[in-house]
Amino acid sequence: MRKHSVQKMMKKTAAYTVLLSCLTTNILVAPMTAYAGQATADVDETLYLNLDYYGNVSDANVVKGINFNGTSSYTDFGDYLKITNMTDEQKPEIKNGSITFEKNKNGKFFFQGELKPDKIKAPWTFDITYKLNGVVTDADKIAGASGLVEMDIDCTPNKSVSKYMQDNMMLFVAIPVDIQKCYSVDAPESQTMTLGQYTGIVFTALPGQEGHFQVRLGTDQFESVGAIFAMTPGTVGALNKIKDLKDLKDDFRDDTNAMLDDFDNVLDDVTDVSAQLKITNQILEQLQSGKNKIHGNAQVIFDGNDVAIQDLRDLNGTLTPLNDDLKTAQWMVYDVNQNLNTLDSDLMDSSSKLKSLSTKLKRLGSSMSGTSIDNLQIQDMSEEIHGVTSTLGKVNTDIKNLTDSENRKDFKASASEVITNAALSHVKNHTEGVSSEEAAAAEEVVKKVQRAAEIAQQNPTSTEEYVPEIVAKCKEAVEDAFAEAQRAAATSLDTALGTQVMTALSMNPTQLDDATKGTIIVLSTALQNMGITDTTTIAKAVGAALTDMASGGDGSTALAPYLSSSPKGQEVKEQAVKAVLAQATATTLGRDKASAYLGHVNDLSKLQSDAKDLENTAIGKNASQLADHVNGLTKAIDEILKATDGLVDSDAAENLVDYINSVTSDLNEIMENGGAVAFDAAKTLNTLRSVISDIDELIGIMNAYYGDVQKTLEDSENVLTQIQKTSGDAATALQNLNSTLRSAEPDFSAAADNSFKVGHMAIDNTNKIVDDTKDFKSTGRNLRDTINNKLDEEEADNNFLNMDPEATKVSLTSDQNQEPTSIAIICRSDEISVDDDTTKTLDAEVPDASTTLLGRIKAVFVKLWNTVRSLLGMDD
Predict the structure, then answer these.
(1) Phi-psi region of 247 (alpha: psi -120 to 50; beta: other; left: phi over 0)
(2) Strand partners, 212
(3) Cβ proximity of 198 and 41 under 8 Å
(4) If you ran DSSP here, which 8-state letter would residue 181 be given?
(5) Residues 577-607 as b or e (16 or more Cβ within 10 Å = b)
(6) I want to staple 246 with a disulfide (CB 3.0 to 4.6 A). Which of 257, 627, 695, 801 is the partner?
(7) Cβ–Cβ under 8 Å, residues 779 and 318
(8) Percentage of the chain exceeding pLDDT 70
(9) 3-state class percentages of the chain: helix first, strand second, coil last, to nearest 5
(10) DSSP assignment, residue 145?
(11) What is the enclosing helix (H) or strand (E) of 219?
């Protein structure tokens, strides 16, 4: 029995030798590492695991080799079931989960620790399946079988181990085969090495990589020493580049993703241009349409410009004689003014003589009433009558010259100013209790208020005198009127009008709330009460008010222009201006005088307003009537001259005296009637004096405006001259522009057509670029996905790129232990043999050293193992 065991041990030793030879061909010698600093012990850790037939851990032992390196002791941590000193007889100090060994005098120190199998966590877990001729068969039934035996070994990465083990531990699987007992060997993706009659089949797996290995053996009698699993960090020199490769991979992924992100942004910007190109294309089409319209109407525009240019030339020719006409009118005004001044002088002279005549006639009337007429009185009367008739002759001549039909047209030109000022002068001279100075001051106030009313309409913000008061009064009056209109509307609503306004504003009455409908009806009725009858105008006003209210206002600002221009608004504004005028004149004249004065002003205000329009037909008629009255005056004077011709002759007077003496008795009978006639003649003369006074005032007014009329005519002449020059220059400029555009239009049209054509081509090309860019973007996205997916696949398949030969090693028994110099995990599945199980020797069972044959064989195995450890860099 012992002899047979020795033979089996020899076979196993030979198989292990082949295995070790295979392993050493896959692992290079680890580089020597130099350490500096404080001395610490070097520790080599090797974990031996015995697996059952199917890959489950059945026994576990760890062997640690210690070089004290000048330290006096070494303390190790771990959950050990049993501690065995493999070097000397020293007993360790055990306390609180730690063991301590003193320094060994004989060199390197080894101890073995037995561990709990269920607590072991290796980087991989294993599952071994056996098949005989393709049929899954239990391991204990396959020993000695004949046929095709298949071993399927699944190695699954263990995610529960430390990060270091997941990323750095490499797996080597070796299956020794006795080729003398196997007539065929098939192991896909394996590496084989033959040593004598044994062939070693070796598989490898990178860190974190799953392994699925198959071995098919054709044999007449199947036996196996078991599968050997070796796990160790990749610490050989070539693996030092892995970290750099990982960094390169990470940088490549990050930089590629960043570059593609930026490139995607650029491509997005390019593809976004498509929307802008559509708008640009629309713009080009619109420009093309506009150009076609201009081109189609070019001749019409040129012809119209030609007509306008000719009209300007005609205007220029028309203005030339008008300039001469203005000069003639200026001389006419001058001559009229001279004639009026002469007439005024003659009228003043006649007035004084008529006064004397009136006195004499009154005296004559008194005499004729009860006193006889003597020759002296008749003589005196004769002289007076002669003077009056002489003066009236001159007046008659002047009036005829003034009111001649040829001069009426010239007279009419300034009739409006004459009548206006005459009206005010009439007020000034015919208001009882008002002195001429007060009347003049009141007249100035009236003019200022009237001017302020005109300015207030054009520029309400003006600060000129009376303008702010008028604006405030008018605004207050309109607001009061609208308030009254609203009160009236509240008692008598026009619902039909409100419905029409809602329809005009595109509002559905059924969709409006009661408050809004009520507001619209009240506002519509109130605006109608203000005199606005047009429904469209009312709708616009209500719409503006509703918009203002929606913005937070009260609607008054929006309604103001409509209320101000309404009939009721115009009426109350006129009353407000009259109120300002009454207040201003009351300040100047006092309340009582101002009332009488304003009564005359109100009666004549319409005349003054109408007189401002010089082309008004009614004013022309008034001027003609005035001339007719003056002509009538000349006829009356002619009659007076004819009636008094006999009185101014001296011989006739003497004959008259004789005749009177002879008929005194007859005259006494008619004295009373003659007295009445004399008194009536005196009254007629007083009336004539009033007419002369009025004419005097008229002449004074015309004299007052003489300078202004002359200045107006002179300014008009200058304006006409400038208009004439401007029209000529404009005609020349337009002619040049028209000629230039007519000659350049074909070139512009052709250039525009070519520009539009090129623009459309550019847009088409850009659209193609955008489409190509979209395809390019899709290709770039596919490239990114391909790179990332490939890298993800590689990282998911294994942790090779995460290997770091310089990473800190972790102890196999406890995280409290110092970093080991080397670590390794060796596993072997149960041997399958037809021999008795008692002859098996487990790798995890380390026998005591002896001088027996078994001890010597064991020593050989230990030596071989130490050689492997040395090759793996797990020894000094």
Answers:
(1) alpha
(2) 154
(3) no
(4) S
(5) bbebbbebbbebbeeebbebbbebbeebbeb
(6) 801
(7) no
(8) 64
(9) 65, 15, 20
(10) -
(11) strand 211-219
Phi, psi at 848, each rounded to 5°? -65, 150
C-alpha 444/C-alpha 438 separation (Å) is 10
**What confidence tens digit (pLDDT) does each residue in 522-549 have?**
999 999 999 998 999 999 999 999 999 9
Q: How far apart are CA 142 and CA 130, in angstroms?
A: 8
Contacts of 757 (CB under 8 A, 6+ apart): none
Interatomic CA distance for residues 849 and 828, integer angstroms = 22
- The residues, ordered by sequence, that sit 6+ positions from 794 with a Cβ below 8 Å of its Cβ are 800, 801
On average, the pLDDT of the chain sits at 74
For residue 269, the Cα-to-chain-centroid distance in whole angstroms is 21
Largest CA distance in the chain: 220
Structure tokens at 198: 């044994």
Q: Assign residue 208 a region (left: φ > 0; alpha: ψ between -120 and 50; beta: otherwise).
A: left
Q: What is the pTM of this model?
A: 0.40
Name 93's bridge partners.
100
Bigger pLDDT: 593 vs 515: 515
Question: In whole angstroms, how far apart are CA 417 and each of 327, 612, 615, 705, 780?
Answer: 21, 7, 13, 8, 92
Q: Which two tokens stand for residue 17?
A: 């030798």
Q: Which residues neighbour 605 within 8 Å (Cβ) at sequence distance 6 or greater?
A: none
Which pair of structure tokens corresponds to residue 679? Answer: 């008194």
755-775 residue pLDDT tens = 777 777 878 777 777 777 777
848 DSSP 8-state letter: P
**3 phi/psi in degrees, rounded to 5:** -65, -40
Whole-number Å distance between alpha carbons of 2 and 212 = 38
Q: Which segments of 10-56 are extended strands (E)?
A: 42-51
Lowest-pLDDT range of 9-13, 252-256, 309-313, 497-501: 9-13
- Local structure of residue 509 (DSSP, 8 states): G
Phi, psi of 200 (to 5 degrees): -95, 125
Q: 263, 797 in Cβ contact below 8 A?
A: no
* SS3 category, 77: strand
> How many Å apart are CA 70 and CA 41, to the nearest integer?
8
Residue 555, by phi and psi: left (phi above 0), alpha (psi -120 to 50) or beta? Answer: left
b/e per residue 94-104 (b: at least 16 CB within 10 A): eeeeebebeeb
E strand or H helix that includes residue 194: strand 191-195
Cα separation, 534 vs 549, in Å, equals 23
**Model pLDDT, residue 625:** 53
Q: Which residues contact 697 (CB under 8 A, 6 or more apart)?
A: 422, 425, 429
Q: Where are the alpha helices (DSSP H) in 169-297?
A: 240-296
Residue type at 479 in one-letter notation: E
Distance CA 11, CA 180 (A): 13
Asked whether the beta carbons of 493 and 521 are under 8 A apart, the reply is yes
Say whether 814 sits in a helix, a strand or coil.
coil
Q: Please tell me the total number of residues recorded for the chain in this structure.
A: 876
Q: Are 576 and 473 in contact (CB under 8 A)?
A: yes
Task: Return the CA Rg of the chain.
Answer: 69
Phi, psi for residue 187 in degrees, rounded to 5: -140, 90
User: Which helix (DSSP H) or strand (DSSP E) does residue 185 occupy?
Assistant: strand 182-186
